[in-house]
Design goal:
Shape: globular
Number of helices: 1
Order of helices and strands: EEEEHEEEE
Oligomer: single chain
Radius of gyration: 15 Å
Mean pLDDT: 89
Structural class: mainly beta
Length: about 130
């Protein structure tokens, strides 16, 4: 198996099983299809494996993005997940929380959030976690 590299397009899937292999999916926001609280582009798990489910990893540091393309993504480091169709980043919206039977949940949507210096905010930062204990 080859490692996932920066700039490489991929599908982010759930494991096979009871729910099936579902893909992380997004599309442009419309009046009827958007995140419930923020009204931003919705992110869902769907069986559809079209262009709406294609993502790529982008380097957190904007000055190093071009240099990092093609290099393997290191687990545990902060990264940005970019949705290829909309060119927006996956975001966890901490200001939109609600309670569920599983506890507090935050809304996840597809929106590039930047600060006054045009740098991505922590809402857009993610990391891959790997369990090496076996």
């Amino acid at each position: 198996k080859k490692p996932l590299c920066y700039g490489q397009k991929f599908l982010l899937k759930t494991l096979p099983g009871a729910g099936g292999e579902l893909n992380l999916w997004s599309d442009r926001a419309t009046f009827t299809k958007c995140a419930p609280a923020s009204r931003l582009p919705i992110v869902q798990l769907q069986s559809d494996s079209s262009w709406n489910a294609v993502w790529q990893v982008v380097c957190k540091n904007p000055q190093m993005r071009m240099e990092m393309v093609g290099k393997p993504v290191v687990a545990g480091l902060p990264i940005i997940l970019n949705h290829c169709k909309t060119n927006q980043h996956l975001a966890c919206m901490s200001q939109y929380q609600h309670r569920t039977p599983y506890g507090k949940e935050m809304e996840v949507c597809c929106k590039t959030l930047v600060d006054s210096h045009k740098a991505e905010m922590e809402h857009n930062l993610w990391k891959f976690v790997v369990n090496d204990k076996q």
